[in-house]
Amino acid sequence: MVAAELALFLVALAAGFLQLLWSPPAPARVAAVAASACWAALLLPARRRWPVAALAATAPVLAGGNVGAMAVLPIVSYATARRVHPARRLWAVVPATAAAGLLLALAVERNAPYGLEAALAGNAISVAVLLVFPALAGALRGQRRPRVRLLRERNAYLERAQGLAADKARMKERARIAAEMHDMLGHRLSLISMHAGALELTAARTAPELSGQAELLRTSASTAMSELRGILGVLRDATDEAPEAERSGTRADIADLVAESRKAGVDVELVWPGPDLAGADPRTRHAVHRVVREGLTNVHKHAPAARTRVEVTVERDRVRVRVTNGPVPGTRPRSPGTRQGLVGLEERVALLQGALTAGPTPEGGFQIAADLPAHPSVPADPPVPREEPEPREVPPPLDAEVLTLPRVLGAGCLGALAAVPVVTGLAVLIVLSLLE
């Protein structure tokens, strides 16, 4: 970078002294050409650090009449216009510099033999070609770069958002699978474990030779439950959704759950004094089903010998569900719980703008209670398709060095905007200088 700048400086300095090849070797003329050449060459390193000052300092070169030094002005004007922000600041400096250059040129050529009007027209063309056109091209290039950078950042943001949306869809499907596994398999495995325990006790008294097989059945059910919990820990996410069944949460559905628990040996009764929930919101009915199922599952695991009461009360637009078990008789130790089901219930009920409480009762038992709206005001989420298409891989953004047809055309038009007038103008100035 330093070597290129040094080479450009030396070339500009040499171009400024070319005027001496066709100028008379008068001392005053040599001093003027040397001063304008050095001044123009010094503008090149200044264009990066002090762009506004370098642009304003081109006025003396415009009025000097040194064609070689004036050839540096398009480079300075183009480079400084790319760095001056905001745009109104640039277009305040360019007209001021152009006016100053014209006034200095008219002051130098006030006694020109071809007249003041011709001098004014020639210098105006020089200002437009060497200052205004390159500044316009540089301003366009300077505005294009931040916009391209902004577009790349937005493209990267959209790619990340698309990836996050795909991850969210996968996690949502995992949560749905986890909820179904917990509610369906967990409940069934608890029943199997209960029946296996009862079979083990009976076999120990009546058929000791079958006691080992009964114990193996019970321990296998417990192991399966532990493995299921491990799988749920992998699949579970904060979002918990599941499709609602048609009869979920109705009186017949809850009665079936209670009957299954009775068959497993749990002393449970159902109290449902009000109307059925067939006309309630499906999400509310499904939440009622989940609360009762979770409560009975906890009873099977922790208090199978306790008396249990399932109560569903429908009052106006509210539904209250309670699953209460009494104290556990005897000294049978309780197995520790993971509260995964309760966490899922709390989230489900909270999404419906309801309330869930779970904790021990003063009598030494345990109660799960939920207060739900019959018709929640929360809008239902749109159904998620079973099979979601895989996100299409988005190609990475093109690098700045990769040439494409739009880039070539855009760069060519921008270069022509500055290069064609500049080259033409410099050629005319060189011809006029040789004819003088």
**Which overall shape is indicated by the principal axes computed on the Cα atoms?**
rod-shaped
The CA-CA distance between the termini, in Å, is 40 Å
Radius of gyration: 44 Å
Q: Compute the number of strand runs.
A: 5
Coarse structural class: alpha+beta
Question: Short summary of the structure?
Answer:
The chain has 13 helices and five strands.
Notable traits:
phosphoprotein, 436 residues, single chain, Heat Shock Protein 90, Sig_transdc_His_kin_sub3_dim/P, Sensor_HK_TwoCompSys, membrane, five-stranded mixed β-sheet, alpha+beta, 13 helices, HATPase_C_sf, rod-shaped
Topology at a glance:
Elements: H1 2-17, H2 27-49, H3 51-56, H4 59-64, H5 67-70, H6 73-83, H7 87-108, H8 116-206, H9 211-235, H10 251-263, E1 268-271, H11 282-302, E2 308-315, E3 318-325, H12 340-351, E4 355-360, E5 366-373, H13 405-435
Parallel strand pairs: 1-2
Antiparallel strand pairs: 2-3, 3-5, 4-5
Helix pairs in contact: 1-2, 2-6, 6-8, 7-8, 8-9, 8-11, 8-13, 10-11, 11-12
Please give a structural write-up.
- Keywords: ATP-binding, Kinase, Membrane, Nucleotide-binding, Phosphoprotein, Transferase, Transmembrane, Transmembrane helix, Two-component regulatory system.
- This is histidine kinase.
- It is an enzyme of class 2 (transferase).
- With 436 residues, this protein is an alpha+beta fold.
- It folds into two domains: 190 residues, no CATH class; 125 residues, Heat Shock Protein 90, CATH 3.30.565.
- The chain is built from 13 helices and five strands.
- A five-stranded mixed sheet has the order 1-2-3-5-4, covered by helices on one side.
- A hairpin with a 5-residue loop joins strand 4 and strand 5.
- Helix 1 packs antiparallel against helix 2 and helix 8 packs antiparallel against helix 13.
- The longest helix is centred in the middle third of the chain and has 91 residues.
- It is rod-shaped.
- It starts with a helix and ends with a helix.
- About 5% of the residues have low confidence.
